[in-house]
Amino acid sequence: METEKEIKLDETNEALQFLIENAATKDPKVQAEFVNQVRNLNDQIGAYQWAQKKRFGFDESSWRHMAKRMTMLKNEGFDCRPNTRKAKEKKAACDNKESHLEQFFLKKKPKTKKKKGPGEA
């Protein structure tokens, strides 16, 4: 199975080197190869931009998820260093009360459907 090469858009890129070296050439054979290298480089740039867009999207969603988790931990009282007096006090206070999620789900009661009478359709 062939693996994909990492795309590098610097001086080690073969297509970019060819374009720089042969930019002023008038030879028709070289110009045909020049067009092929331009297309190749264009494809590489598109793939690179696509990969970067995916990475940025993943990073953004990861930070959003982490921020939600941190907020949840702060709401639960876990926003201090472990094994400190404040942490022990918060733990003792938390043991006696329900968490925010438990309170939320207790508020939501399951909806029951009304039974239809014999005459209702």
Comma- or semicolon-separated keywords:
121 residues, 4 helices, mainly alpha, single chain
The biggest sheet amounts to: none
Q: Helix share of residues?
A: 55-70%
What structural category arises from helix and sheet content? mainly alpha
Kindly provide the radius of gyration, computed on alpha-carbon positions and rounded to a whole number of angstroms. Answer: 31 Å
> What is the residue-averaged pLDDT?
77
> Number of helical runs?
4
- Structural domain tally: 1
Principal-axes geometry comes out as: elongated
Quick one: how many beta strands? 0
**SSE succession:** HHHH
Distance between the termini: 63 Å
- Low-confidence runs: none
| % residues in beta strands | under 5%
Provide an overview of this structure.
The protein has four helices and no strands. It is an all-alpha fold and 121 residues long. It has one domain (14-103). It starts with 13 loop residues before the first helix and ends in a 14-residue tail after the last helix.
Would you summarize the structure shown here?
The chain has 121 residues and is an all-alpha fold.
SSE topology sketch:
Layout: H1 14-21, H2 28-76, H3 85-96, H4 100-107
Helix pairs in contact: 1-2
